[in-house]
Amino acid sequence: MKKMYYLLCVAVLTAMLQCGVGSAAEALPPQSASNQTAAAPAVSAEEKVIYDPLAGADEKLLKKFCLVKGRTYNKMTACLNGLDSKVTGLDAKSRPYYLRVDKELTDKFFRRVRAYDEKTKAQIGEYYVAKDQSSVWRLDGDNPGMIAGSAEKVMKKTKLLVYPRYLQVGEKGVVRLRTPGDVPYTVQVKSLNENILTVDKDNQLIPQKLGKTDILVEAQVGDAKDTGTAGIYVVTKEELQQMANRAYMRRLYMNQMLLADELYWRSWWGSPFYHPYYYGHHHHRPPKPHHHK
Predict the structure, then answer these.
(1) Are 240 and 166 in contact (CB under 8 A)?
(2) Facing residues of 228 across strands?
(3) 7, 184, 187, 225 from 219: Cα distances, Å
(4) pLDDT in tens, 202-229
(5) Residue whose C-alpha is closest to residue 173's, from 145, 202, 195
(6) pTM of the model
(7) Backbone angles phi, psi at 25, to 5 degrees
């Protein structure tokens, strides 16, 4: 009996101590920052450090992806090194660097050039240099854009994209420019008939009622400006479905015609379809097709 009483007292005392410890822990103020383990600061996408992936590679591997010497390499590097350090962000005296020039052209127009810190191998600049050195663009930094030359040739290679051209009421259309190398641009869109189509502050196309209208697009790439137009159609859901069906049947028809033509010409040039082995030694090939003028 005494033993049971003793065990009961111990259990009650233990429970009281645990409750007391929990209450005391809740009453304690939070730990100060100096006593906590310091967490690693989050690195934003803009602050992410990129290192030279070809650092330490031999010349044979470098030549596979980059220009390491020659006339084109000298032109690209001289063009970039000859610019003011304030616009390029490159200063060989305060921070020695080296340049990597891509072997392949971007959109058949730009050479991408990247600058790396000689000591850390970290990327400190990224640029486009036109193959004819007509313009130079900075791709990194706070204000990416053209830093030298003229963008007239870039504008000539820029395409206006409007999609979709056929809109239903309740949907939205967008206007974009496809620039070489996706260099930055600005665009302003206006509807020539706001009863049918309006344009919001983000240059999205908002159909209002059925009909057709044109939009006026004023674009700027670097220092070059241009204006273009495009026709927009506001249609019903049923009309869109009919157009989709017609387009499908047209593709199906063309595919079948091309297949038939391919089989015919394969047979004409000795395919087993008309091979004498299958039709006897006296089988004659079909005549050549008659082309109507």
Answers:
(1) yes
(2) 217
(3) 88, 11, 4, 6
(4) 999 999 999 999 999 999 999 999 999 9
(5) 202
(6) 0.67
(7) -65, -40
